[in-house]
Amino acid sequence: MVTIRDVAADAGVARSTVSYVLSGNKKLPEKTRLRVLESVARLGYRPDPMARALALRRTNILGLLASIDPSSRQTDVDVFMRFVRAAMYAARARGFDLLMMGSGEDELARDVLADALIVMDIRRDDPRLPVLASIGLPTVLVGYPGDSSPFSAIDLDFKRAARIAVDHLADLGHTEIAVLGLGTDSSEHGFAFALLFREGFLDQCAIRGVRGAVIPNVDDDAGVDAWLDRAQDELPGLSAVITHGPGSLEPFIDRLLKRGLSIPEDCSIMTVAPEEVMRHADRPVTVVDLPGEEMVSRAVNLVLDELSGSVSPGITELLPALVHDFGTTAPYVQGEGGRIFTRR
Known about the structure:
The chain is an alpha/beta fold. The chain is 46% helix and 16% strand.
């Protein structure tokens, strides 16, 4: 394989001169430039794009650090791929390619072949953040871990989203509301959005005089019945449920319908999901819009602005929460509480 050293020897110049000619980073005498290019052509030299990128300290690659577990019911692959596609389009518009990366700090410990990073699945005390800080690449989070983070972040205002969901249901007269939680994983790993939603939900329930509970889901075939058994113990008059996304929504609705219940007459249901996805779903559900594609696109443009030096790190954007009513919430009929449990 012909190397840059061979080209330099053939042209009678230093290796750095060959690099300058190929990169165009330094103006050289035309005679020298032509001599180097003649040697390149004669020897058939082809620069290694990876080595060239490392030498120039610029790859024009944007890394997307995200995880997805297709085997989990909590995962909606179609929604996730919408976010990835939005990131790819936004990056390409700025002249960058998108590189999908794993989710752990172990991968970050190796050399990262990217100019900047977008990080998803943010946790409240995310172990990746100190590693990212030590790497020193421009980084923007899709998710808000709190004020202690040094990185810019784009997220839905999940606290406000929970408050708006409670207000929507309380205004319809519901007095006992549950959140179908993400399961033990969300608590163990401290997903920031789930914790923020929980805080906003419980705070707003207290303000509105509503009994509320966040009850973790169980990610198996018996999960919905186990959830309903626990909900009956905690909220015997339960009449409204809020879920996190389509992943847990479909099994829950299927089980309610098999119990002979009607939606929204026996149970009002809301979810947090992309409005566009829910609008075209087989069973549209009243939704607090999660504008994931907008969030990711904003994150891409923000991190590339940081890379260019046009903005400084530390920007936080929390997008407003909006409700879109698709007819799965209805006024609560006084005196008929607990219909979720009485009709089976």
